[in-house]
Design brief:
With about 90 residues, the protein is mostly helical. It is built from 2 helices and no strands. Helix content is about 85%, strand content about 0%. Helix 1 packs antiparallel against helix 2.
Length: about 90
């Protein structure tokens, strides 16, 4: 009986540390993607006259790709918060 409880506790600790790792990675990815999408939007629209057409096209495509990364990292953040028992916002 005690072995079963210890195994269950050990499993919960492993999942908790996994969720904490995912939360840290997701928060980092969110911050990084926010910086990157801001830069790509500035290159695409605000400062377009200072960049070549190839850089502008890359920035337009980058905006779409980075937006997808931002969404996936937010979903991972929500999953990690739910797994840790935190309020999901």
């Amino acid at each position: 009986m005690n072995t079963l409880m210890l195994n269950n506790l050990n499993s919960q600790i492993q999942f908790s540390s996994l969720y904490e790792t995912v939360l840290i990675a997701a928060n980092t990815a969110l911050a990084l993607s926010l910086v990157c999408i801001t830069a790509s939007i500035l290159i695409s629209y605000t400062f377009a006259e200072y960049f070549s057409m190839a850089v502008q096209v890359s920035a337009y495509i980058g905006t779409i790709v980075i937006a997808a990364i931002l969404k996936v990292s937010y979903v991972l953040r929500c999953i990690a918060q739910h797994g840790l028992g935190q309020e999901v916002r």
